[in-house]
Amino acid sequence: MKSIIFKKPGVYAYEDRPEPQIQNRDDVKIKVLGVGICGTDLHVLMDPPMHPARPDIIFGHEYCGEVAEVGPDIGWLKPGDKVIVDPHPPCGSCKNCRSDRPNLCTTLYSQQDSPWPEHGVTRGLFADGALCSYTVVPSISVYKIDNRTPFEQAALAEPLSCVGYAIEKLDIQAGETVCILGAGPMGLLFASMARANGATKVIVSEPYEYRREKAMKCGATHVVNPKEEDIRQVCLDLTDGLGVDHCIEAVGQLLQMSIDVIRPGGKIVMFGHDETAVPQIRLADIVRKEAAIYGGFLGKYYFEKTARIIESGILPLEEIVTHTFPMSEYEKGLELLRAGKALKVVIYPEED
Fold first, then answer.
1. Which residue in 2, 5, 143, 331 has a CA-CA distance of 20 to 30 Å to 14?
2. Which one is catalytic: 43, 61, 88, 273?
3. Active-site residue 40, yes or no?
């Protein structure tokens, strides 16, 4: 089967790989329908890279598909079911997994025999992923979704699960105010979820006009160009001088700005992932405001909720997926994303 293979920083190949087969009694063979290109993928394909990956694996971790075959122990899935897939398999037996912290699974992120002990076995980055025609995964990673769901929206399940899991830490209440720094696909998902959770003012800071326009279609009530306006002052003006209740940092370098825009007692989720960022922080501002700062990373065990959210149609997901391409045109998707002319690109295989 044709596959996109990560070779080394800055290099991938479009080549044949054997079609995987069921090996275990609880395995599920999935016909891939759509795979989103993640910002992490772009970081992996930089040279030098901003994120590691294992050479010679099948790329792609944000995907949905159709069940092609199930192992003999699976009675709740059947061929033809549409599914979303969690690409981050927890072990289920380490202390974190057994203490309701599967997002911090030590097997997933601390394989001491791996060249990347802090990262582990995420499919599409450190094990074979989904930029191919078929994958085989254990049933614990598979979640059913309504068969009528468009594949390009179902392919948003992995990033949406991360957003949903992170935003629940803020416990946004109806009538509260939210500032979102960055209007890439993740920032737009956060804006949509903030409005769905009842926020009455959603202020999005984004330097690119195209993304600001998209933000207004995805839940933002106000947009700010940070190159021309002071986002802190805008947030103060829109909250009677108090500051916003919550800030979501979806860039990776703007913690101090997040602290600046919240009210005393406000909450922050740091979600932007930049492993090279080492920003300077005024620690006294955190102390004086008694700010609550959370990290947001994966959406472990949020996929069941994610499927129901996507099915509901409550989020304008059609605004976030801007392009679809066949796998043979993968490079076109990368070029659009690198040029800032696309938000979420979904790739689909051309063979059964």
1. 143
2. 43
3. yes
